[in-house]
Amino acid sequence: MPRSKEAAQANLENLHRIFTVPEAPDSTLGSIDRDIAGNVAGFLQTHVVALERKLIEIEQDFSNARVPEEPTFVSDYTEFLTDKLVAQSVNTASPAFIGHMTSAFPYFMLPLSRIMIALNQNLVKVETSKAFTPMERQVLAMIHRLVYDRDDDFYGRWMHDPRHALGAFCSGGTVANITALWAARNRLCGPSGEFRGIAREGLAKALRHLDCAGLAVLVSRRAHYSLGKAVDLLGIGRDNLVAVETDENSRIDLQRLREESRRLQGEGMRVLALVGIGGTTETGNVDPLEAMADFAQELNCHFHVDSAWGGPTLFSRTYRPLLRGIERADSVTIDAHKQLYVPMGAGMVVFKDPETLASIEHHAAYIIRRGSKDLGSHTLEGSRPGMAMLVHAGLSIIGRKGYELLMDGGIERARHFAGMIENHPDFELVTVPELNILTYRYVPAWLQQDLARADAETARRINARLDRIIETIQKRQRAAGNSFVSRTRLALPRYRNEPIIVFRSVLANPLTTDEILASVLEEQVAIAAQPDLAAEFAEIMAALG
Amino acid sequence: MPRSKEAAQANLENLHRIFTVPEAPDSTLGSIDRDIAGNVAGFLQTHVVALERKLIEIEQDFSNARVPEEPTFVSDYTEFLTDKLVAQSVNTASPAFIGHMTSAFPYFMLPLSRIMIALNQNLVKVETSKAFTPMERQVLAMIHRLVYDRDDDFYGRWMHDPRHALGAFCSGGTVANITALWAARNRLCGPSGEFRGIAREGLAKALRHLDCAGLAVLVSRRAHYSLGKAVDLLGIGRDNLVAVETDENSRIDLQRLREESRRLQGEGMRVLALVGIGGTTETGNVDPLEAMADFAQELNCHFHVDSAWGGPTLFSRTYRPLLRGIERADSVTIDAHKQLYVPMGAGMVVFKDPETLASIEHHAAYIIRRGSKDLGSHTLEGSRPGMAMLVHAGLSIIGRKGYELLMDGGIERARHFAGMIENHPDFELVTVPELNILTYRYVPAWLQQDLARADAETARRINARLDRIIETIQKRQRAAGNSFVSRTRLALPRYRNEPIIVFRSVLANPLTTDEILASVLEEQVAIAAQPDLAAEFAEIMAALG
């Protein structure tokens, strides 16, 4: 064999090897794999470096835009990965990471994920998913039942019906919300008479057919930003996503909702949908869903509830009533990678009426043929992994009672934390937790008193300075790497509707203890006492005289 | 402690345990996990039952819509899972599974997936992804460079620029295609003068501003069905996705393209985009991208290339010229879970101009703030897993030369298979492979001769009967479970543009051997000889006289 042919042959053999030979248990990757399997928490503590490296430094390790010409040994790559990527990740599973909605998940999810990935099913069609298709349909039915509680006959009739779907499994809540509004839009503008429907003729002709100036979606100002994307994508326009004022408890103001709706109608607009929020992202509050359902009925529009976060609260006998009215929604979003404790990449939207999703139905000749049970005919996405298996596992293994404990635990932990904040002289609870999210800020006791007495202009000046301090505290706490709360900017009636920056805490990890919560506050107090921030406070004090 | 309190305490302890105690290595799940790690292929062969069970029977195991009240032991659940789900999955990794685009992936992807899942990063924002954000930006830059081959300065300037993104990482090619057309639409209808842009004002006002009757997208009739979803979602309407006729090689007919475009302009329509296909889903053909780029320039419209399948062919020095002109596209879709051999759930779209994605930019107060490097500001999806890590691993470990071998191997295997089909007296090659996809059908030698002589009406009658037979053969082969080809319906000039049903074969698995390909054909011959099908052929022969 000539030299080059020999080399090509060797390359081919190497290539076959990477597809057929597993990592040896004592290889770098094999041993990391085993470490994680045996002790994720320990692995994360050992490998995820707490101290924040500047992003600009991290970028140096990921700055070559050229795909390497030659192959690399898996062991060399794994070392690079542990040093440069794993070490510089965020320990989202840490019980002191209480700033975002990404938290720990149960151990069994890890080996089950390996099964899911090894099977590499594609849920777009039965030919590449087989049993995964009925399983996903069952998961959607379980979530549907959690929300709408229909009887066995209903689910026997619809769950596996090839021409219908009770919902859509998505990569996340954003696609779920988009799917809901897409279906609502296409249903409102469905075929009638000469008009062949918006799906075929497009939005402009649909508006002419409906004889209106435009479509509008009404939601509180606490809406998730995915709704803005949805109305942009759907051609409705962000101006027509009307952000209604909220009350002191961050719930939609029903009076203002009526006013906005009247205004829109006066302008010749058609209200496509009301969106109620079942756990706002920033404050965890729940809109008055029952009253919104009444109003949606009055307007004869679609009623969507975005309970990406709060939906699983329905598992709790105690707190389910907080979401009263959700069962009247035409569609409901629930994220599994949030409070169903499934790894990232799993959202769902369910529809009250099994006919609704027909408005976005589509087919193709080589897959998702008419009459097939292929789930791809009712989803925004095409090829999709078998994430529903992990939701199925969570629902089966944890059970309703298990999720109830998780939900109750989170809400009670948040109330407890709120109490700790209120009892601390130097903190101010900004929003009271209704579910398991709260916001607060650091305001020294003396300044709280001054603020209470201050006129509007003085308060504005103080709050502007406080904003910068709160932001600095949040960033330094994050950089120190022991604990993490997020921050956001809220406009609340209590603060004259002028936006202020607050700490935001999400209490979803069942392993978060009182000690951890206490230490989060202590650390914030300590940061506030650092010389530059202490000097800022001294200046504020001096300015107040 | 009273009884109920004791029980509640025990429940809480159980709950903590599932979050903190890993599966014992000798537990059911632990041992499956180890089996898969040590030998996926063996695990799949042992556990995935080849013989097809009827879907309606499988559904029985997934028909309870009620979430179980009580928790289940992980071991019990795992047994259910292996019996009812794993056993009834599709062995997509089998080298005899040559019917769809889902195939095997290298072994190292499995332990790396475990790392990715254990880290549970959320790419929407740096606060929950840290090093994963620069890594994903690097992956997008690598794919950008693969397509556009800009210099180091370009990537140094744009790769990590917080206000820009070279592309979007998506759950799959459908979201990638939607993102491309969304950006194109919003760019065409951007703010100008009084008009504040389609993102804010919506599609109807944008059309008025552009002074046109509607937007249109032109693509060949071989387009992936995701483009239909895209124009529906974007409010453009499916009627305005114009499916242009193809030539004998399933490539867009440039003459017809010009005619359609003239017709649209005559109707006052504005062409938003031309879409070229870099590997059609059904036949693997590549549109004349260079000529389409010229024409897009002439029309002054967006030029998108959907190379979800064929994109990685760019790694091959030999076959890269097949995609000539792709570097002139404004946007390009490439799926990683197809020919980058990454597990399901990874697609990408890259944009020639780093400014394009600004048209869909969005922000929120609590995350993806203005000026942050958060990738969430330029994606359709919100929360997203760290799948980019697996793409990064593939590109690094396999390298350009490794992917070249994979691409060359697939194309050569397809040519070889085409030769086998042509040399077989009882098969007819319907579409010649350009990349690694081909279609063919079973037509006994004598019938091929008759068909060649038949008039249009007779040919139509014969083809209708052949269609049913081909469909039956495909279903029986799938049900037998030894091998799998898919089927589709194609209209080709050679067949008077009347749709016929064909077998479709996708040669992406590097472990597929000549022996396997030969046995696929043998099995089809054997099925065709089964009494009922033999009788069908006898009837056809009799009818022909």
UniProtKB/TrEMBL annotation, chains A, B:
Keyword Lyase: yes
One Pfam family recorded for the sequence: Pyridoxal_deC
GO biological process: carboxylic acid metabolic process
Classification via Gene3D superfamilies: Aspartate Aminotransferase, domain 1, Type I PLP-dependent aspartate aminotransferase-like (Major domain)
Cofactor(s) recorded in Swiss-Prot or TrEMBL: pyridoxal 5'-phosphate
GO molecular function, one term: pyridoxal phosphate binding
GO cellular component, one term: cytoplasm
N6-(pyridoxal phosphate)lysine modified-residue sites: K338
Keywords linked to the UniProt accession: Decarboxylase, Lyase, Pyridoxal phosphate
Keyword Lyase on entry: yes
Origin superkingdom: Bacteria
Family membership noted in the UniProt record: Belongs to the group II decarboxylase family.
Xref: PANTHER family: CYSTEINE SULFINIC ACID DECARBOXYLASE, GLUTAMATE DECARBOXYLASE-RELATED
Protein name per UniProt: Putative pyridoxal-dependent aspartate 1-decarboxylase
Organism: Trichloromonas acetexigens
Gene: panP
